TrEMBL record:
Protein name, entry field: Polyketide cyclase
Annotated PANTHER family: POLYKETIDE CYCLASE/DEHYDRASE AND LIPID TRANSPORT SUPERFAMILY PROTEIN, POLYKETIDE CYCLASE_DEHYDRASE AND LIPID TRANSPORT SUPERFAMILY PROTEIN
Gene3D superfamilies reported for this sequence: 3.30.530.20
Any Pfam family matching the protein: Polyketide_cyc
Gly residues compositional bias, start-end: 54-71
Basic and acidic residues: bias regions: 1-10
Compositionally biased tracts (Acidic residues): 241-293
Region (Disordered): 1-21, 47-76, 235-302
N-terminal signal peptide: none
Domain of life: Bacteria
């Protein structure tokens, strides 16, 4: 008797096969969903651990981010992000440096800086935009040499930085700016953004905005801060630096005037010498011609 002719109450082999196959697929589906849930949960745990500074996103606590861009601080709890950006600007070196010292203007052309207030030549207060919120910190200049470099540190509730910016003259109207920053995030949002290099992208973008601003600004209207800082203290004020530059300019002008006077005196001496020589040469030529004329006359008489 075929399965189709069997009594409805009697289970057929085909029905058993269908039921078994359905049960297998259902079990497999639950297993896949369970595994997917475990993977998502594990990824969430690793992301949270990385944001808290207890892991590297791979389930362990001794790794760094890709490319060697991060490392742990001395306490071993906070990872630092190392950022380096370079930009070439078609403007003289002094103009680029003087523009960088105008901190209060950064909010006019950058996307991240909201305001900068300088307390004195060494310290300044920054307010920047981080996602939908804002962050504040105090920056301290440790070293500043005009047209060469600026070294600083900053401290805030959500992180700290150490950085240096250097200025290099490639040509009379071409300057290279190099920025190196070591960033230590402290808040959850900052640490999470640190995983995706958000700070490096922000610095790169703002540095491009700075290059655009400097290139399009009338360089004759700029007077930057020309003082010098060593070990966090001002060793030469802006006024002293400007006085020294003015004195050097006066010395250069006096030196050029002395050279011009010496050159004129030398020309006068050469001029007098040449006139006397010309007269002597004319007299000698005249005497020589007279002698030859007398010789010719004596020959004719013979």
């Amino acid at each position: 008797m075929t399965p189709d002719r069997q009594d409805k109450d009697t289970p057929s082999p085909l029905g058993n096969l269908k039921d078994a196959l359905g049960g297998y697929l259902s079990a497999s589906g639950h297993s896949l969903v369970g595994k997917a849930g475990e993977r998502i949960g594990g990824l969430t745990d690793r992301l949270t651990a990385s944001a808290d500074g207890n892991g590297d996103g791979n389930g362990n606590g001794n790794g760094g981010s890709k490319g060697g861009g991060s490392s742990k601080s001395g306490a071993g709890s906070v990872k630092a992000t190392h950022i380096m950006e370079v930009v070439d600007i078609g403007v003289p070196l002094r103009t680029v440096y003087d523009q960088w010292t105008q901190l209060q203007e950064f909010s006019d052309f950058t996307k991240g800086v909201r305001s900068v207030n300088s307390e004195d030549e060494v310290t300044s207060n920054w307010n920047v935009k981080v996602g939908p919120s804002s962050r504040s910190w105090k920056a301290t200049v440790l070293e500043q040499v005009p047209d060469e470099r600026i070294v600083w540190t900053s401290e805030g509730a959500k992180g700290s930085t150490r950085g240096v910016i250097t200025f290099h003259e490639l040509a009379p109207r071409l300057t290279r700016v190099v920025v190196v920053v070591e960033y230590y995030p402290a808040g959850f949002f900052e640490k999470t953004g640190n995983l995706w290099r958000a700070q490096g992208r922000r610095l790169r973008l703002d540095l491009k905005h700075f290059a655009r601003h400097v290139t399009l600004t009338d360089e004759e209207e700029i007077e930057g801060w020309r003082g010098e800082i060593r070990d966090g203290e001002v060793v030469r004020t802006h006024e002293e630096a400007m006085e020294e530059e003015a004195a050097d300019d006066r010395d250069d002008d006096d030196y050029e005037d002395d050279e011009d006077d010496d050159y004129e005196d030398y020309e006068d001496e050469d001029g007098d010498y040449d006139e006397d020589d010309d007269e002597d040469e004319d007299d000698e030529d005249s005497d020589y011609d007279d002698e030859h004329e007398d010789d010719r006359r004596a020959r004719r008489r013979r």
